[in-house]
Write a structure and sequence with these properties.
The complex is a heterodimer of chains A (about 375) and B (about 400). Chain A is of the alpha+beta class. Chain A is built from 15 helices and eight strands. In chain A, the strands form three sheets. Chain A has a three-stranded antiparallel beta sheet with strand order 1-2-3. A three-stranded antiparallel beta sheet of chain A has the order 6-7-8. In chain A, strands 4-5 form a two-stranded antiparallel ribbon. The radius of gyration of chain A is 21 Å and the shape is globular. Chain B contains 15 helices and no strands. Chain B is globular and about 65 Å long. Classes of the chains: A alpha+beta (about 375), B mainly alpha (about 400). The interface of A and B includes residues 134 and 200 of A.
């Protein structure tokens, strides 16, 4: 630290959020600034705390499933899937193939929807106002499929412990195919708008660099980790559902900057389209529920199960004491843990970059605060 | 009757000038109001939505509704603000923007005045507009406006330098500072200045986007950390004045660009006799507009709107017929038509940028200005001067 003189400006502490257009919900960040440069930060969370984990202890296993939808509310299908699988693991239930493929289709569609929402809002934060309308248009098609399947668009509660809530409607496969054909050229369109845009490059390249070592040390997962060049995807590493029978790539970045994370997510959308296509081809008729007892009362024990959510590794630790309610439900939310890397990423950057970096982590406060 | 009026006006030059000022002022206000409408519509179409549709057929009365709303709103002066300066600042911005139009030649028969230092006057007065911004930001006695104002003025000042140097390149060709002479010289040369000064045009284009605080250089107003920039504390009519000034400035820089680089009121290839049919451009414009309006009318589900659009189409058809029938009228609107067509292309480009580009960061914006635009403009100026000297060493010096 060089000696300070009377000419030095004082450090300035400013408060960003919880009501701020670019903090994606109710995140509050206290920034310590030297001029416009960030020299320190502190995240203050909890404005959306709803005690989801505690609620879990006071509901039966089946009753708790809809609550998980409300954590990462832009990826409700994935949340519900993680919880259902954890309980199924506890019960030792095997799913019929039709249920497995359906789950994969819906989860991948949800991943695309979540990434589309992220892309639109992230671009909007950086001043590009058009992509958000396009991505919402495409997301709408996915929500229509969800709506046709289970009647809900956002908090779907699409699955049931042991299988599916409903059987697929007539024409589901066709709708998915049509969406896949429709979606790919649209992703190319976003890329034309942004990927080689000079201003976009200037705003995202070398902004918020997170090295692979740092990313691993902080437990960061999902596209943020893969953007830093670590090839870790729960779908490949610990396959669940039908993922071990499907072919897909895990895109990774090289520098770990905002631009790489953008590319990774774009590529992931393409991969997801491929996965949906494969599933639609392989899905067969058959039962949609495994052998689950009428009253879910798992044996004493605990299980940790994690899946690859759109934002990273979403884990559920479910502890059973042999009664109707779980003894403890502990959730590992990817947004919360990825948010821990924010301070590392924004140090030394300008205030305008903070907006870009918060956007690139892709947080949902419902999940961070639970 | 009409001749009497003309004689009267020629006998009273001051009245004549006032009439022209009033006409240009009214036309300009109308253009600016509908510029906002156009922006909302065009952006909406780029973004797969409809834009204003509720007020009037196809939302055509939206600018009027907006204007009335802003006029009726409370004019809030924040506690602790420097009241006098706070109230004065928006007026400075608007005044500077409108005054400049005095020397813009819309057509050789439609201009307020032609002074022999026209372009200098433009640069001088439009620089005064910065006072409106910096005083407004300072007198609000609030952090965000002050920071926004500082940024805006820094941005405007630095890009004005680039624009000014780029314009000098054009002046080397025209040998005059008068806006009318600049256009006439382009007619003499037979090419528009854009073809002899493409680099200068590029610099001017970028600088004009930055000077009007438009995307991708719209930091002072839209940067998420600065709320609304210098006019955060303004409401009601005074906010409307800033708004008016911003859009007037857009029309203004477009008009200057058209005059300097695109031959002002000249039609394309004005010296090529074989292309004389281009003088029917206004007719084609009216017919095209009529077809468009007719198409809109057919799409509209409301009977009243359909009738309105059919009426409008018929009116446009009548105008087209009048233009064909009377060469006098056709010649009279020739300059105005081409000028506004070119300005419209410029304005469309402004909207287009906004729909396409992300926003620069503040330091990047300054970098682009000082490290790229100004050196580029300087290099262009030097090369132009040297080339001109060798091509024509005995060029009259003015």
């Amino acid at each position: 630290m060089p000696e300070t003189t009377f000419l030095d400006a004082n450090e300035l502490v400013i408060n960003m959020g919880p009501q701020h257009p670019a903090t994606h919900g109710v995140l509050r960040v206290k920034l310590k600034l030297d001029g416009e440069r960030v020299i320190g930060s502190e995240c203050i969370i909890g404005y959306l705390h709803r005690g989801v984990e505690k609620i879990g202890e006071n509901r039966t296993y089946a009753q708790f499933a809809p609550y998980t939808d409300r954590m990462d509310y832009v990826a409700a299908v994935t949340n519900g899937m993680g919880y259902c699988e954890a309980v199924e693991k506890l019960l030792g239930v095997e799913l019929p193939p039709r249920a497995q493929y359906t789950r994969v289709i819906l989860a991948e569609l949800q991943r695309i929807a979540s990434h589309l929402l992220w892309l639109g809002t992230h671009a909007l934060d950086l001043g590009a106002m058009t992509p958000v309308f396009y991505t919402f248009r495409e997301r709408e098609e996915i929500l229509k499929i969800f709506e046709n399947y289970c009647g809900a668009r956002l908090t779907t509660h699409a699955f049931r412990i042991g299988g599916l809530q409903y059987d697929l409607y007539d024409g589901f496969e066709k709708d998915c195919q049509r969406f896949c054909d429709y979606c790919l050229p649209k992703i190319d369109e976003y890329e034309t708008l942004l990927t080689t845009n000079r201003i976009w490059l200037k705003r995202t390249k070398n902004v918020g660099v997170l090295s692979a070592e740092d990313a691993i040390a902080m437990g960061v997962t999902g596209p943020v980790l893969r953007g830093s060049g670590v090839k870790w995807d729960v779908r490949k590493a610990q396959p669940y559902e039908a993922y071990d029978q499907l072919e897909f790539e895990v895109p990774i970045g090289t520098h770990g900057d905002t631009y790489d994370r953008y590319l990774v997510r774009i590529q992931e959308m393409r991969q997801s389209v491929g996965i949906v296509r494969q599933c639609v081809e392989r899905i067969s008729t058959g039962p949609i529920m495994g052998k689950v007892p009428k009253v879910i009362k798992p044996p004493v024990g605990e299980v940790y199960h994690s899946i690859e959510g759109p934002k990273g590794e979403l884990g559920y630790l479910v502890v059973s004491d042999g009664t109707l309610n779980p003894y403890r439900v502990r959730i590992r939310p990817p947004s919360f843990i990825n948010l821990g890397a924010l301070d590392k990423m924004i140090r030394g950057h300008l205030v305008a970059d903070v907006v870009a970096i918060i956007g690139t982590i892709d947080i949902v406060l419902g999940e961070v605060d639970r | 009757m009409a001749e009497n009026a003309l004689q009267f006006l020629e006998a009273h030059p001051l009245t004549f000038a006032l009439v022209r000022i009033l006409i240009i002022f009214a036309v300009l206000s109308g253009i600016v109001a509908y510029m906002v409408y156009l922006e909302r519509k065009v952006l909406a179409f780029m973004q797969a939505r409809l834009g204003p549709m509720r007020v009037g057929p196809w939302g055509l009365l939206q600018p009027i509704a907006d204007g009335v709303k802003l006029l009726l709103k409370e004019d809030i002066v924040p506690a602790g603000a420097d009241r006098f300066v706070f109230l004065l600042a928006p007026a400075i911005s608007v005044m500077a923007a409108f005054t400049v139009f005095a020397v813009i030649p819309v057509a050789d028969n439609f201009l307020i005045t032609d002074v022999n230092i026209g372009i200098l006057l433009i640069l001088a007065i439009s620089s005064l507009g910065i006072y409106g911004i910096i005083l407004g930001g300072w007198s609000s006695n609030s952090h965000y406006p002050l920071l926004g104002a500082l940024r805006s003025s820094a941005q405007l000042v630095s890009y004005e330098v680039a624009a000014g140097i780029a314009i000098v390149g054009v002046l080397l060709f025209s040998n005059s500072l008068s806006m009318v002479e600049i256009v006439k010289r382009q007619q003499q040369m037979g090419v528009w200045n854009i073809f002899v000064q493409p680099v200068a045009f590029f610099v001017y284009l970028v600088a004009s986007v930055a000077e009007t605080n438009r995307a991708p250089f719209d930091l002072p107003e839209a940067e998420s950390e600065l709320t609304a920039g210098f006019h955060t504390e303004y409401s009601g009519f005074r906010f409307a004045l800033y708004f008016l000034a911003e859009y007037t400035n857009m029309v203004l820089v477009s008009s200057i660009g058209v005059t300097l680089f695109f031959g002002g009121w000249l039609r394309p290839f004005s010296n090529v006799a074989a292309l004389d049919f281009l003088k029917y451009g206004p007719v084609a414009g009216a017919l095209g507009a009529a077809a468009f309006v007719q198409w809109l009318g057919r799409k509209s589900p409301v009977a009243g709107e359909r009738r309105f659009f059919v009426g409008l189409a018929l009116l446009l058809l009548a105008i087209a017929m009048l233009l064909v029938a009377s060469p006098l009228v056709l010649n009279a609107v020739q300059g105005v038509f081409w000028f506004f067509t070119k300005v419209l292309v410029f304005l469309y480009a402004f909207i287009w940028y906004r729909g396409t580009f992300p926003r620069y960061r503040y330091d990047q914006l300054m970098n682009v200005g000082w490290r790229w635009m100004i050196p580029l403009a300087l290099a262009n100026l030097i090369v132009t001067a040297v080339v001109l000297y060798f091509v024509n060493p005995h060029m009259p010096s003015g």
